[in-house]
Write a structure and sequence with these properties.
666 residues, alpha+beta, four-stranded antiparallel sheet
Length: 666
C-alpha cells in the first residue's frame, strides 16, 4: 500500500504538470488536440488520486502501522467506524484529501463547461492544474502520508479523542472542500484576465461554482459549531477561534461575490468588483489552509502539528501578488458598460452589502493576525478575545441583516424617497407591532436585544411580503391555487427565491444568536446519586453512573432524570471519556432541545467514591433555531442552483409598490 500510494501521487503530480503546461500552450497556439489531451490528463489525475486515497484507507483498515501516518493516527482499539475520520486527522492525510477534492472539482467543472466557456476553458484548466500541482508537490516531497517506519510498532498512538464525534465524519471534509472549491471560480476569473477579453462568458459558471463553495463552507461552519457545542463542554458554539475564522472569512467574501455576480449577470455591472472579490475569496481561502495546516496560531480545532507553515505562507504570498498583479494589469479592460445610476437602487444595496461583508472579513482577519504581528514586533503575544470580535463585528452584522431586509424592496436602476417609504411602510409597521408584542410578553428590556429582534423581524417580514405579493399576483394571472402559484413563482426566478430561503436561514441564525448570547443561564454543581439540582424551571436528579473500560479509554455515562413544573421530561445521558495516553477527558453533553430552549448538561468530573460527580448545567434559549437554519441553507442553495428551462413566454407579475415608472422589476 505504501508503494502504491506513493507511486500514484507521483503519477498524479506528473499528469497535473503536463495538463497545466499543455493547456496554456494549446490555448496560446490554438492547438485543439493539445487542449483535449490536457483535459484528459485532468481526468486521469482524479483517478490516480482516488487509488492513492483507497490505498491509505486500506492501510488504516488493516492496521498497517509500518506506515508512519497510520501509526500516528489510529490504534487497535479505535472503532473501525472512525477510519474515515482518522484518514484526515493529520496534515498528510488531510492534504491528500484536499488534492483529491480539488482534482475532482477541476475535472467536473471542466467537463460541465464543455462548449460553454469557449477559449476560457483551457486557461481555466491550466490554472486549476497549477494550483493542484502545488499540493501534489507538498504531498510528494514534504508530507507523504505513505512514509514508512524502519520498525512497525505493535500498536499505534490512536486518534485524537476530540475527533471521535459524529460531526467529524462530514465537517472537516466540507470545510476543506469548500476552501479549495474557491479555486474553480477563481480559475475562471484568472482565465478571463489571461485571455485579455473581459466579458461575461465566465459569469454563469463562476456563480454556480462560487455558490457551491459557499454552501460547503456554510454547512461546514454550522457543523463545526454543533461539534463545539456538544463536545467541548463550555456550552457555547462559537468563540472566534482562529480555525473557525479561517473558514468564516472566505465564506464572507464568497457571500459578497455571489451577490455581486448576480448584478453583473443582470445589469452588466461590477465586472472589476467581481474579479477583485473572487481574488480576495481565494486569497482568504489560501490563508485558511495556512492556518489549518501549518499556521502558527494555536486553536482547539487544530489536531496536527506541522512544520509546513512557511510552504503555505509562500503559496499565499505568490497567489496574492500574482492574482492582483494580473488584475491591475488588465484594469483598463475591466470597466463595465453600465454604471450605478442611483444610490437608491438594488444595485447600490448590493454594493453596500459587499462593503459590510468585506468589513467583517477584514476585522476578523485583523483579530487573527494581530497576535502574530504583536509577537514579531514586541516579543509579547497579545490575545484578541471574543469581546473584540463581538464589539466590532456585532454592529456590522446587525447592519447587514437590516440591509438584507431593505434590499429586496428596492427596484433596479433608480427609485425615489417617496417610493422607498411606501415600500418600507407595511413591513416596518408589522415589525414594530411584532417587536412590541414580543418584548412585552417576554419582558425584554436590553436595548441591544430589542434592536436585534426588530432588525431580524424586519428582514423576515420583508422576504415574506415579497413571497406573498408574488404568489397572489401569479395566482390572479393564472388562476392557480396558492400552493401551485407559489411553486410557479419560485420556479420563475430560482436564484432570487432560493436566495430568499437562505435569507430566512440567516434570520433563524440571528434569533438563535441573540437568544443564547444574552439569556443563557449557567450553574456548576456537585451531585451524589439521588440528589437534585435546579436551573431555571428544570429540576435535574443524578440517577446513576455507568462505566466501561477499553484498551485506550474509560467511558462513563451519567444518567439524569429531568422534570419541569412537576412533570417528567425523561432522562438525559451525559458522556465522558478518559484517555490516559492523551492526558485528556473528552465529553459529550446531554441535551434536551426544543424550539424554546436547550437544557444542556456536561458531565465534568467523577469523584473517587464513584457516586459523586461534577456537572455543568445550562439553559440556552433558541439554539434549536440555529441548527434548523442548516437545512434551509441547503434547500435555498439547491433551489438557486437548479437548472432553469427557457420558456417562450413568462407570466406577467405586476410591479411592486416600490418600483418607479420605467424601473425594471426583478
Amino acid at each position: 500500500m505504501a508503494n502504491l500510494g506513493t507511486a500514484t501521487i507521483l503519477i498524479a503530480l506528473l499528469l497535473a504538470a503536463y495538463s497545466s503546461v499543455t493547456s496554456f500552450v494549446g490555448a496560446k497556439r490554438h492547438d485543439a488536440p493539445a487542449v483535449v489531451s490536457a483535459q484528459r490528463a485532468n481526468y486521469l489525475v482524479t483517478l490516480t488520486l482516488a487509488v492513492s486515497m483507497g490505498a491509505l484507507v486500506y492501510a488504516f483498515l488493516e492496521n498497517d502501522f509500518s506506515i508512519r501516518y497510520v501509526a500516528e493516527n489510529s490504534n487497535l482499539a479505535m472503532p473501525r467506524v472512525y477510519t474515515w475520520v482518522a484518514f484526515y486527522a493529520g496534515n498528510a492525510g488531510s492534504l491528500l484529501y484536499v488534492a483529491f477534492a480539488l482534482s475532482g472539482m477541476a475535472a467536473l467543472s471542466m467537463a460541465l463547461a464543455h462548449g460553454r466557456l469557449g477559449e476560457l476553458r483551457p486557461y481555466a484548466n491550466g490554472v486549476l492544474m497549477l494550483i493542484l500541482l502545488f499540493f501534489l508537490l507538498v504531498l510528494f516531497f514534504l508530507a507523504n502520508p505513505f512514509a514508512t517506519l524502519e520498525r512497525a510498532p505493535a500498536d499505534g498512538q490512536g486518534i485524537n479523542p476530540l475527533l471521535t464525534h459524529p460531526g467529524m465524519f462530514a465537517q472537516p471534509p466540507l470545510i476543506m472542500t469548500g476552501l479549495v472549491a474557491i479555486a474553480v471560480p477563481f480559475s475562471l476569473a484568472v482565465a478571463a484576465l489571461l485571455r485579455g477579453r473581459i466579458d461575461d462568458d465566465w459569469v454563469d459558471a463562476g456563480r454556480v461554482w462560487g455558490l457551491a463553495a459557499w454552501v460547503l463552507l456554510a454547512i461546514g461552519l454550522l457543523l463545526g459549531s454543533w461539534w463545539a457545542y456538544t463536545i467541548l463542554g463550555w456550552g457555547g458554539y462559537w468563540a472566534w477561534d482562529p480555525v473557525e475564522n479561517a473558514a468564516f472569512m472566505p465564506w464572507l467574501a464568497l457571500t459578497a461575490f455571489i451577490h455581486s455576480i448576480m448584478v453583473q449577470k443582470r445589469r452588466g455591472m461590477f465586472r472589476m468588483w467581481n474579479i477583485a472579490l473572487i481574488n480576495i475569496s481565494f486569497t482568504l481561502g489560501a490563508f485558511g489552509i495556512f492556518i489549518n495546516r501549518g499556521g502558527p496560531v494555536p486553536s482547539v480545532h487544530s489536531f496536527g502539528a506541522s512544520t509546513l507553515g512557511w510552504v503555505f505562507l509562500t503559496f499565499l504570498g505568490v497567489v496574492t501578488v500574482a492574482s492582483f498583479a494580473l488584475f491591475f494589469y488588465r484594469m483598463a479592460v475591466l470597466r463595465s458598460p453600465s454604471n450605478l445610476e442611483s444610490t437608491l437602487s438594488r444595485e447600490a444595496a448590493f454594493l453596500v452589502n459587499n462593503l459590510l461583508l468585506l468589513g467583517i472579513a477584514f476585522v476578523t482577519l485583523w483579530g487573527v493576525v494581530f497576535p502574530l504581528i504583536s509577537e514579531l514586533a514586541t516579543g509579547q503575544t497579545i490575545t484578541v478575545g471574543e469581546p473584540f470580535f463581538n464589539t466590532v463585528n456585532g454592529p456590522l452584522m446587525l447592519a447587514l441583516v437590516l440591509l438584507m431586509g431593505i434590499g429586496p424592496l428596492l427596484p433596479w436602476r433608480t427609485a425615489t424617497w417617496q417610493s422607498v417609504r411606501r415600500a418600507l411602510l407595511v413591513p416596518g409597521v408589522i415589525t414594530l407591532a411584532l417587536t412590541a408584542v414580543v418584548t412585552l410578553l417576554l419582558r425584554i428590556t436590553l436595548p441591544v436585544v430589542v434592536l436585534g429582534i426588530a432588525v431580524s423581524t424586519f428582514a423576515g417580514v420583508s422576504i415574506l411580503q415579497e413571497w406573498v405579493r408574488g404568489t397572489l399576483a401569479r395566482s390572479r394571472s393564472t388562476g392557480a391555487l396558492w400552493p401551485a402559484a407559489f411553486a410557479q413563482l419560485v420556479a420563475s426566478n430560482r436564484p432570487r427565491y432560493g436566495g430568499y430561503v437562505v435569507h430566512i436561514a440567516v434570520v433563524m441564525l440571528a434569533f438563535g444568536i441573540v437568544g443564547s448570547s444574552f439569556y443563557s443561564v449557567e450553574r456548576d454543581v456537585f451531585l451524589t446519586t439521588g440528589e437534585q439540582a435546579t436551573i431555571g424551571e428544570y429540576t435535574i436528579e443524578f440517577v446513576d453512573v455507568t462505566s466501561e473500560t477499553f484498551a485506550d479509554r474509560t467511558e462513563r455515562t451519567a444518567l439524569l432524570a429531568v422534570t419541569r413544573g412537576g412533570r417528567s421530561l425523561g432522562t438525559l445521558a451525559a458522556w465522558q471519556g478518559v484517555y490516559p495516553s492523551f492526558s485528556m477527558i473528552s465529553t459529550r453533553a446531554g441535551i434536551r432541545s426544543t424550539p424554546q430552549e436547550d437544557l444542556y448538561v456536561i458531565f465534568s468530573e467523577l469523584q473517587p467514591d464513584g457516586q459523586t460527580a461534577a456537572f455543568r448545567l445550562l439553559v440556552n434559549p433558541l439554539v434549536w433555531w440555529m441548527w434548523l437554519a442548516g437545512p434551509f441553507v441547503i434547500l435555498g442553495t439547491v433551489i438557486a442552483l437548479w437548472p432553469t428551462r427557457q420558456r417562450a413566454a413568462a407570466y406577467a407579475v405586476p410591479p411592486s409598490p416600490s418600483a418607479v415608472p420605467g424601473a425594471e422589476v426583478a
